[in-house]
Write a structure and sequence with these properties.
The chain is of the alpha+beta class and 96 residues long. The protein has three helices and four strands; from the N terminus they run E-H-E-E-H-H-E. A four-stranded antiparallel sheet has the order 2-3-1-4. A hairpin with a 5-residue loop joins strand 2 and strand 3. The longest helix is centred in the N-terminal third of the chain and has 20 residues. 16% of the residues are buried.
């Protein structure tokens, strides 16, 4: 499995709708964390987006998984990017 750093970008105009959908989004995150696909996630303090560390077989599998996120389903992402990440040092590196 490959570890991916996924960045979500939000637009301020969708903040109210994201607040409404957030319980479903967080439920989805909890479910994929239980399955071992989500390693960590959280929003940026300034509200402009979020960072997710995820495991997937490949980029195609990752994108299929991300498409199921209620934020994506509801069109609440201004953009996203994903890059394979190779953690080699630090306390978290041994977790992957």
């Amino acid at each position: 499995m490959t570890v991916f750093a996924v960045e979500y970008r939000y637009d301020a105009s969708t903040a109210a709708r994201r607040d409404e959908v957030r319980p479903d989004h967080r439920g989805w995150l909890a479910a994929i964390a239980d399955q071992g696909q989500l390693l960590a996630s959280g929003p940026y303090e300034d509200g402009t987006g979020a960072l997710l560390l995820m495991k997937a077989d490949d980029a195609e599998a990752l994108h299929s998984l991300l498409a199921q996120d209620p934020f994506a389903v509801e069109g609440l992402l201004a953009g996203s990017s994903a890059v394979a990440w190779n953690p080699v040092s630090g306390p978290l590196a041994s977790q992957f």
